[in-house]
Design a protein that fits this description.
Layout lengths: L2 H8 L18 H8 L18 E7 L4 E6 L9 H13 L6 E6 L12 H9 L5
Parallel strand pairs: 2-3
Antiparallel strand pairs: 1-2
Length: about 130
């Protein structure tokens, strides 16, 4: 399936808020990758997958040019898993120095609304979603 074509047709001009303003440069490849994931939108809510609490961790190997992203989802039957994974890969492979992206999905502990960042809660409230 060409997820890119589907996403281009379904986004409907929805814009993500800008990522947080970081005062220090990223220390390593893993941190640069994590920051880039603020540009990956959750398909159902207008916030990033980082702010929604779906990103559990990021590991990077500068020499190999590889990144491993540990993700969870809001439900084991989440219909958007493939879309999110595709977006994560596409965004990270756009970055200099990244040639390989591995995604590891974990379910323990289960995702809850407690995983939403304070910034994510503010953004959701601003569009009428109560958390």
């Amino acid at each position: 399936m060409d997820f890119g074509a589907v996403l281009r047709e379904t986004r409907g001009g929805r814009e993500l808020p800008p990522p947080p303003a970081f005062t220090e440069p990223a220390a390593d490849l893993a941190e640069r990758a994590r920051r880039a994931l603020y540009e990956v939108a959750d398909p159902e809510f207008p916030i990033s997958i980082v702010d929604l609490g779906l990103v559990r961790g990021v590991e990077g190997d500068e020499k190999a040019g590889s990144v491993t992203v540990h993700l969870t989802f809001t439900a084991t039957a989440c219909p958007c898993m493939d879309f999110i994974e595709w977006d994560v890969r596409q965004r990270l492979l756009e970055m200099d120095g990244i040639r390989k992206v591995e995604i590891v999905t974990g379910w323990d502990p289960p995702w809850t609304t407690a995983a939403i960042s304070a910034r994510g809660r503010r953004l959701l409230r601003s569009v009428g979603v109560v958390t």
